Amino acid sequence: MNNELQGKVIFLTGGAQGIGRECGLAYARAGATVVVADINHSAAQAVVSEMQGSWSSCRPV
To answer: HEC profile for the chain?
Structure first.
């Protein structure tokens, strides 16, 4: 695991799908805490579940 962003918090809007989702996954792999904000809360929760499986602390909002 790359810890380049360890200790950083990313507030990602539109992070449930597409480019936002991929950015969120990359930030999580780099060790950041990722807050996924999206109008589609269930999709945001699904992305966060995927992020938490392997990487950092993440939350949907």
So the answer is: CCCCCCCCEEEEECCCCHHHHHHHHHHHHCCCEEEEECCCHHHHHHHHHHHHHHCCCEEEC
